[in-house]
């Protein structure tokens, strides 16, 4: 389904709902308006009828010519400018009228049968005159004894009221249509303010998916869409950076693999062409081959560990262990290496025997990786210092060097996969990623603090063994 159908569906659904609501409101409004004005007309008729009934009652007590008085009252009806009073005899014939027109009742009213069917006292009826005029009638029986009049019908025209109601209905419909128009226009604009950016986002995402890492979304809004644009731009930046790092990683690993392989191949060919009597050359070649083979093995192990981490298959074999014992063995290995490179490795030994619940091979891997980096990124005569101490429930190891340090902008990325802050040094760029995962799976923390050209400090904190760790 096309994205633009969102706008169409929104408009159609909104139009339908709003139209239904407005129709219901209009019907309720029209019913109430009609009832209000018709009630007003009824009250007007009832007040005039009550006034005349009171007058007739008064005349019956003081006048002997009551028939004449009633006739005069009807013919000189005080509200003749608003309504008509019609006097009927006991046979239903018109015998007096305030407008001076005397005609048969059946001729005067278009729907005579409907009105005369209920000539009981205090009865309201609506109908039409023969000329089409819409009227309301109110029947009031004359209770005073007389020989001519049985009742008086009061007739008021509803044309003006109907015209007023019609005008109000037209105004209401126009207002409703205007409201629907503005809702559709504003709604379409509102929806498009989301749909258009989404279309742009869709185009950019497709370009990114096709490998164009340079394209970015222009943010033009101040709502959640901008957050989405920022997130996608950030994703594109990270993908671009990851792509760059990955390419550098492939290049670096290729170089790292080629170097020992070249050495192994070269010395293998040299040994093949060397007589058994040349023990010095044979020994030197075997040392190089052994050393470079160990390098290859370490690289392959790092790659395998990294692959396991990525696939969620990196698991530890934990037992109670003396963490300082593993640290001391690592120090022992790298002390000779540091001396050969003209660097100092100082370990401030601890008398304590802190026990943790961990995988000793993986813990040693952490120490080896960090100390190896400290030596690798230090220059001749630099110092690497290792401190260890127990603090409450944690054992902390601090490895500090006076080497080249790490740039501030690179510090937050050093544990990311494939990242290398210094491309002049050997390495795959995944060692610290593995180290971070190992420390994390031991419920510990790994912190880096570095100043470029001054040195780097790495702090490893691991929880001490507790009985419930097993």
Description:
The chain has 470 residues and is α+β, with helices and mostly antiparallel strands. The protein folds into three domains: 161 residues, PAS domain (Beta-Lactamase); 65 residues; 151 residues, Heat Shock Protein 90 (2-Layer Sandwich). It has eleven helices and twelve strands. It has a five-stranded antiparallel β-sheet with strand order 2-1-5-4-3. A five-stranded mixed β-sheet has the order 7-9-10-12-11, covered by helices on one side. A two-stranded antiparallel sheet has the order 6-8. A hairpin with a 3-residue loop joins strand 11 and strand 12. Helix 9 packs antiparallel against helix 11. The relative contact order is 0.07.
Number of domains: 3
- Would you identify the CATH H-level superfamily of the largest domain? PAS domain
| Low-pLDDT residue spans | 110-118
CATH architectural type of the largest domain? 2-Layer Sandwich
Radius of gyration from the alpha-carbon trace, in angstroms? 52 Å
- What is the count of helical runs? 11
Shape: rod-shaped
Briefly, what CATH class of the largest domain?
Answer: Alpha Beta
Strand content: 15-25%
Summarize the amount of helix as a percent range: 55-70%
Largest beta-sheet details:
5 strands, antiparallel
Sequence of strands across the biggest β-sheet = 2-1-5-4-3
What is the CATH topology classification name of the largest domain?
A: Beta-Lactamase
Q: Can you write the helix and strand succession as a string?
A: HHEEHHEEEHHHEHEEHEEHHEE
Estimated structural class: alpha+beta
The total of beta strands comes to 12
The overall pLDDT average reads 80
Q: Determine the oligomeric state from the structure.
A: single chain
C-alpha termini separation: 56 Å
């Amino acid at each position: 389904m096309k994205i633009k159908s969102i706008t169409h569906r929104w408009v159609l659904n909104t139009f339908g709902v709003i139209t239904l609501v407005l129709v219901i409101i209009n019907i309720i409004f029209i019913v109430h308006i009609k009832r209000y004005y018709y009630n007003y007309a009824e009250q007007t008729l009832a007040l005039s009828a009550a006034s005349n009934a009171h007058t007739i009652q008064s005349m019956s007590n003081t006048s002997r010519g009551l028939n004449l008085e009633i006739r005069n009252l009807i013919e000189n009806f005080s509200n003749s400018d608003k309504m008509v009073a019609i006097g009927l005899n006991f046979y239903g014939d018109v015998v007096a009228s305030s407008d001076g027109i005397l005609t048969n009742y059946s001729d005067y009213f278009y729907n005579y049968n409907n009105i005369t069917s209920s000539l009981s006292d205090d009865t309201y009826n609506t109908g039409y005159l023969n000329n089409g005029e819409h009227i309301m009638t109110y029947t009031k029986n004359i209770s005073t004894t007389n020989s001519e009049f049985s009742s008086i019908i009061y007739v008021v025209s509803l044309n003006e009221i109907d015209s007023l109601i019609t005008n109000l209905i037209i105004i209401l419909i126009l207002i409703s249509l205007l409201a629907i128009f503005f809702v559709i226009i504003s709604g379409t604009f509102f929806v498009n303010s989301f749909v258009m950016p989404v279309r742009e986002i869709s185009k950019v995402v497709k370009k990114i998916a096709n490998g164009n890492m340079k394209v970015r979304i222009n943010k033009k809004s101040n709502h959640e869409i901008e957050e989405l644009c920022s997130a996608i731009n950030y994703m594109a930046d990270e993908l671009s950076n990851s792509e760059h790092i990955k390419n550098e990683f492939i290049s670096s690993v290729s170089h790292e693999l080629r170097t020992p392989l070249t050495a192994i191949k070269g010395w293998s060919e040299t040994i093949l062409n060397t007589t058994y009597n040349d023990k010095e050359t044979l020994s030197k070649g075997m040392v190089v081959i052994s050393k470079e083979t160990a390098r290859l093995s370490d690289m392959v192990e790092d790659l395998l560990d990294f692959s396991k981490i990525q696939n969620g298959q990196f698991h530890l074999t934990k037992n109670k262990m003396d963490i300082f014992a593993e640290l001391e063995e690592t120090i022992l290995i790298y002390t000779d290496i540091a001396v050969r490179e003209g660097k100092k490795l100082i370990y401030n030994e601890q008398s304590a025997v802190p026990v943790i619940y961990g995988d000793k091979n993986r813990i040693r891997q952490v120490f080896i990786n960090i100390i190896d980096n400290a030596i690798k990124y230090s220059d001749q005569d630099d110092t690497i210092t290792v401190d260890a101490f127990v603090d409450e429930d944690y054992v902390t190891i601090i490895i500090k060097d006076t080497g080249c340090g790490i740039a501030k902008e690179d510090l937050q990325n050093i544990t990311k996969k494939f990242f290398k802050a210094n491309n002049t040094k050997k390495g795959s760029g995944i060692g610290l990623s593995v180290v971070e995962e190992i420390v994390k799976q031991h419920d510990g923390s790994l912190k880096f603090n570095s100043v470029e050209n001054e040195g780097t400090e790495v702090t490893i904190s691991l929880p001490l063994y507790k009985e419930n760790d097993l």
